[in-house]
Amino acid sequence: MTRTVGIYIFDNVEVLDFAGPYEVFTCASRMAAKMAPDAPLPFAVRTIGASRAPVRARAGLVLHPETAFADAGHIDVLVVPGGVVDAELARPEVIAWIAASASRAELTASVCTGALLLAETGMLDGLEATTHWDDLDALRAGWPKVKVADGRRWIDTGRVVTSAGISAGIDMSLHLVARLAGQELAERTAHLMDYDWRRD
């Protein structure tokens, strides 16, 4: 079974917030193809924008979404990265799309301040969640129904997984590979990436 991983990208997205998970899931499929050449790839990854228009990441990198809200299709694993999310929080169509996509997905994950976008949909109400250490107070203040936890690399509540800042998204994504496709594949993926996987 191949799961579709959809990663939302937007103006002022943090580069490693989206690129870290992108690398993990694509490397996992490359490694899986070596381990079992005749088996379906575990993940098909694509970036999604509100439209197909280019967006500019926080550091200035220009990104071209592979697909848009209107034609994104089914998403099994929705990844919402962070960055400067103030403008995204003020776009009802973005919040509505995240909420609708998450309701149909097997699981939804956030990196860094992507948790604020999930919180705005209401899907974090009553759940433990985390974000970048510098944004924990903002998450607490803006969404008091969320059980904000600090000092955690990621928090897996079942259908919703949140991670701390930037590099923690790589650790979380490896955790998701292990959860969805097996521990051995996650470990081999971390090794392929030459990455010292920090497990929560």
Question: Can you offer a commentary on this structure?
Answer:
The two termini are 27 Å apart. The strands form three sheets. The chain has a seven-stranded mixed sheet with strand order 5-2-1-6-7-11-10, with helices on both faces. A two-stranded antiparallel ribbon has the order 3-4. The protein contains seven helices and eleven strands. α1 (15-35) packs parallel to α6, α1 crosses α7 (183-192) and α3 (92-104) crosses α4. The chain is globular and about 45 Å long. It has 200 residues and is an alpha/beta fold.
Summary of the model, kept short:
With 200 residues, the chain is of the alpha/beta class. The chain has helices at 15-35, 86-89, 92-104, 114-121, 136-142, 168-181, 183-192, and strands at 3-8, 43-49, 55-56, 62-63, 67-68, 77-80, 107-111, 128-129, 147-148, 154-156, 160-163. Helix 5 (136-142) links the parallel strand 8 (128-129) and strand 9 (147-148).
List keywords for this structure.
DJ-1/PfpI family protein, 7 helices, Class_I_gatase-like, two-stranded antiparallel sheet, alpha/beta, 20% strand, 38% helix, seven-stranded mixed sheet, DJ-1/PfpI, 11 strands, 200 residues
